[in-house]
């Protein structure tokens, strides 16, 4: 198989999310890891190169050295995609440099440190054939795709109400995680940006709601808090939302809800029916018609939409989860990169993978949530971005 040549920025062997990206990229045998900048600590960077690369000399000291030396290689050997899995502060610098060098980018969310930087990336991409993918993992689940298709088909009728929740407990003080490596940078405004909880998980919840409902959030009223003492950024959020059709919504995001693991769930209520999906039980989708018994939709059956089938890997009754969902995005991005080798494509044509449109929407959601909360919980209007523009 002609694999896509991948470079990793950040995500050395000890990094949780870096390991997840590697698992996802390698699952379908579509990528070969050829180079990287795995750590700012050059000893750790060298050790990671020895462990992860066939040629450890391609473990570079910086993104700039990577671009310079990879660009000097024959086209058939040089890196094609870089995956950015560093703290938020460096996303824009690395993505911008890669785009300028003509290298495709797959980036952790949020895409940038500020909305202004996301707009700069958009301008760069408009002038470039480079593809840009964003790691909104949860739309990679088959039944999230199915939920969206049932909304689009009108099975729920007019959307009236959306309740989306993403609750965790790993930043609760009683769990003694405040000083962990993962927690420390996410709670540091110089590394994470204006928000911890909303920027880390609230933006996932917003993206999931916009994707399934096939329409953007247009207004929000946010109440963010640092529930635990001595934190500069939020660890808990409650946000009222309005969608393009004026549907009402509630978004809950929390990293201090003791007892919660990774509780991402969504309920969508229309004029004809409702639906319910939970990330911790991802192979089931509950459809709730107003005049019939509720139905449980399961993965692996022929009655599912083509979109859900495309992201389904195993027969019914064989559970699929987070890594598989992530791998679905990586594989879809690889297909787009391979197509771009021989065809002219635009940045918004990344085979359904979230991209710069979702990056803009996400950064605006984060910054507006903070602004709404700090201004006394005022309603704020958002620019509308078409959530389907990256098909």
UniProtKB/TrEMBL annotation:
GO terms for molecular function: nucleotide binding. It holds the Pfam family GFO_IDH_MocA_C3. InterPro entries: Gfo/Idh/MocA-like_OxRdtase_N, Gfo/Idh/MocA_oxidoreduct, GFO_IDH_MocA-like_dom, NAD(P)-bd_dom_sf. This is Gfo/Idh/MocA family oxidoreductase. Gene3D superfamilies: Dihydrodipicolinate Reductase, domain 2, NAD(P)-binding Rossmann-like Domain. Residues 5-134 form the Gfo/Idh/MocA-like oxidoreductase N-terminal domain. Residues 144-275 form the GFO/IDH/MocA-like oxidoreductase domain. Signal peptide: none annotated. Keywords: Signal.
């Amino acid at each position: 198989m002609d694999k896509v040549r991948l470079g990793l920025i950040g995500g050395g062997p000890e990094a949780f999310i870096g390991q997840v990206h590697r698992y996802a990229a390698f699952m379908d045998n579509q990528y070969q890891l050829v180079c990287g900048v795995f750590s700012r600590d050059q000893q750790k960077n060298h050790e990671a190169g020895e462990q992860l690369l066939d040629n450890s000399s391609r473990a570079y000291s910086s993104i700039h050295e990577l671009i310079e030396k990879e660009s000097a290689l024959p086209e058939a050997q040089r890196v094609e995609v870089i995956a950015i899995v560093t703290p938020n502060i460096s996303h824009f610098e690395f993505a911008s440099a890669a785009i300028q060098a003509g290298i495709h980018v797959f980036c952790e969310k949020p895409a940038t440190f500020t909305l202004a930087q996301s707009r700069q990336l958009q301008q760069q991409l408009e002038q470039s054939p480079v593809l840009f993918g964003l790691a909104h993992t949860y739309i990679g689940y088959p039944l999230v795709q199915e939920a969206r298709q049932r909304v689009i088909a009108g099975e729920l009728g007019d959307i009236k109400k959306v309740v989306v929740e993403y609750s965790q407990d790993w930043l609760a003080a009683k769990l003694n995680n405040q000083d962990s490596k993962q927690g420390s940078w996410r709670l540091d405004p110089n590394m994470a940006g204006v928000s911890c909880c909303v920027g880390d998980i609230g933006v996932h919840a917003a993206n999931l709601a916009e994707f399934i409902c096939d329409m953007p959030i247009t207004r929000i009223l946010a109440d963010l808090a640092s529930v635990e003492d001595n934190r500069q950024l939020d660890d808990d959020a409650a946000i009222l939302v309005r969608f393009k059709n004026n549907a009402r919504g509630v978004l809950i995001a929390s990293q201090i809800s003791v007892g919660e693991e990774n509780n991402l769930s969504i309920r969508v209520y229309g004029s004809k029916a409702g639906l319910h999906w939970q990330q911790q039980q991802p192979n089931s989708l509950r459809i709730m018609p107003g005049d019939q018994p509720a139905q449980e939709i399961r993965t692996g059956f022929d009655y599912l939409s083509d979109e859900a089938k495309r992201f389904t890997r195993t027969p019914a009754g064989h559970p699929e989860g987070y890594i598989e969902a992530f791998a679905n995005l990586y594989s879809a991005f690889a297909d787009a990169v391979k197509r771009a080798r021989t065809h002219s494509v635009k940045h918004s044509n990344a085979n359904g993978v979230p991209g710069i449109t979702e990056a803009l929407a996400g950064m605006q959601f984060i910054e507006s949530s903070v602004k709404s909360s700090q201004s006394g919980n005022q309603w704020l209007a958002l620019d509308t971005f078409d959530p389907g523009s990256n098909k």
